[in-house]
Each structure stands twice: as C-alpha cells, then as structure tokens.
Amino acid sequence: MNGPVLEIDDLVVEARSSDKQVRIVDGVSFAVHAGRTLGLVGESGSGKSVTCLSLLGLPPRGVSVTGGRILFDGCDLRGRTPAELNALRGREIGMILQDPMTSLNPLLTIGRQITEMFRYRDGIKSREEREARAIDLLQQVRIPAPESRLNSYPHQFSGGMRQRVAIAMNLACNPRLLIADEPTTALDITVRLQILDLLREVQTERGTAIVLVTHDLHLVRRYCDDVAVMYAGRIVEQGPVEQVFARPRHPYTKGLLGAVPRLFSAQRRLTVIPGQPPLPGSIAEGCRFAPRCPRAQADCLSAYPATRDIDTNRTVACWHPEPEEMAPEPLLATEAS
C-alpha cells in the first residue's frame, strides 16, 4: 500500500475541568507508513501519551476526542463502534506501555496470558497448539528456556524480560501498527538498546509501522525514520530525523537538542530552556512557546503560527524559525551506541 498506515488529521482531545472543557491536544497531525518509525518527542505533559491512547479509543477518564480524524488504512476510527474498535486492538493495532506490569496480570502466569489471546482472538481450542504458539513467540523475543517460563508469574521476570513478554503479546496477532509509549524508560541502557533492536528486527520482518514515544533523543536518532516534536498539545516541527536533527528550525527543537549531552564534546555546556511549559487551561493567545523563546517578537504573542512546509516532508509552526543552517555539533548516531 502506498498510503500511510496511520494518518492523524487535526486531532483535538479535551478534558473536563470544573465547568469548562480544556484542550490537551490541539490540532495535531502526523502520519506513519508501513516499515517506518515515527518518534513522538517533547517534555512531560505535552500530550504525547494522551494522543496515543486516543488513537486506540482509550483516552483517560474524563478525556474525549472532540475533533479531527484518526485514519487507519484510510478508514476513520472515530466512526467505529466500541465492538469494532475492540476487534482492531491487538489484532491490527498493538500498544506497548511504559511499565509492563500495568499490562500484565500479576495473578496469572505468563503462559496463561499469552495463550488466552490465541483462544479468544483466533479461536484455537487446543491447549497444546496454544502453548506451542506461545513458546514460539517467547523464542522470537529471545526469552531463554521459554518452555519452562510459561508457568512463571510476571514478578519472576526482570523488567527487561517483562517488556519482552509484552512485546510478544503484541506480536501474537501480527498488528500492522505498533504504538510504543516510553517502552524502555525504566530499563538500563544495555537492555534498552536490546528491546529497541528487537522492535526494529520485527519491523524489518513484518513491515510494521511504529510510533515511538520517548524523551531520549539519542534513541530517536538511532531508531526512528521521522520525528514529530510536540509542545503544549501541538506539533511544532516534524520531518525526517536526519534533517530535523541536523537543521532544527523551531527554537524549541533547537533547545531540546542543545540540552542533550554529547559523548564527544566534554567541553560543551548544555543549553537550558528557561521557564516551564504552560498548564492546560492557562494557555494564552499566540505561540505557546513564546514566553520561553529567545526569538520571540510582538507578533508571536498575538496569534498562533500556522504550520507551513519548509522542505520536502518537513513542517514547522513558527513565526520566526531558526536560520536554515547546519546546527553546531549535530547529534550523531554513534552517540546512541
């Protein structure tokens, strides 16, 4: 298929606060194609996780999608019934959460949790066949001695192994889209790279489209094809990783990259973005980054800038973008090693 597996068009997500609706996600648009990984980055509270949960029709309590389109294979998921969405979850769209203990039942064995997917999703009645498939999945995610681990409980696995089990459960139905929401945050760097290497191998074999939510720009540089930078509920810049990281045009993107330690630049001082992101419900008119932006001018405070194309497959939402020149000391792929 030539079109994107997932296309988000002007998504609006609101939460009920006292007697008013507060926009958490405001006009977000992006797309991800088969076999490609989109990195969704930004500070905590920018709306990344809410966006991903909304794609699955699972926004937090009190939060709802009030505008825009969520196109999966060209069909708007907002028009689907709860039963139709439930049929898509797991089978067509998978999600890996930050803490696997929130997606694994601590009272059930790993084997029980994996095999029940084959029973209810695929209608496989044979226990032996279900267990054989579960063992095969655990082998694919490199869990040693999988036959002996089917009767283990989640607490008997390390954090990295639990995350591998969560990946195995998502792979059980061979989804076309995989959403990974901070899947490696609680893991040490070695295990973190192993998990993402595993996801990349799965993507290569199956052509899976992946949305990776992360704070770690080194991982984005190493594993993602495209990146969307999110701030206060909006996408401020997006495009191919190589281009965005080498020539950031939005001051916020430049600030994020400047705050990343460089392995080979010990004498370089890290930059600091002053201030704090605005709280939902307290956002003033104009550009939301203006109070923290070194390039802000009077027009930045009066109206939010429209998103404009600045290159092939690149957009930025800024009245006064950074000059189009090579960023000093760009983030290198070797620094993620």
What does this entry look like structurally?
With about 325 residues, this protein is α/β, with parallel strands linked by helices. It has two domains: about 1-90 and about 175-335, Rossmann fold (3-Layer(aba) Sandwich), CATH 3.40.50; about 105-170, no CATH class. Helix content is about 30%, strand content about 25%. The protein has helices at about 50-55, 80-90, 110-120, 125-140, 145-150, 160-170, 190-205, 215-225, 240-245, 250-260; strands at about 5-15, 20-30, 35-40, 65-70, 75, 95, 175-180, 210-215, 225-230, 235-240, 310, 315. An eight-stranded mixed beta sheet has the order 6-7-8-3-9-10-12-11, sandwiched between helices. Helix 3 (about 110-120) crosses helix 4 and helix 4 packs across helix 6. The radius of gyration is 21 Å and the shape is globular.
Throw out a few tags for this protein:
single chain, 337 residues, alpha/beta, Rossmann fold, 2 domains, eight-stranded mixed sheet, four-stranded antiparallel sheet, globular
Outline:
This protein has helices at residues 48-55, 82-88, 110-121, 127-140, 146-149, 159-171, 189-206, 217-223, 241-246, 251-258, and strands spanning 6-17, 20-32, 37-41, 63-72, 75-76, 93-96, 177-181, 209-213, 226-231, 234-240, 308-311, 314-316. By secondary structure, the chain is of the alpha/beta class. The protein folds into two domains: 1-92 and 177-337, 3-Layer(aba) Sandwich (Rossmann fold); 105-172, no CATH class.
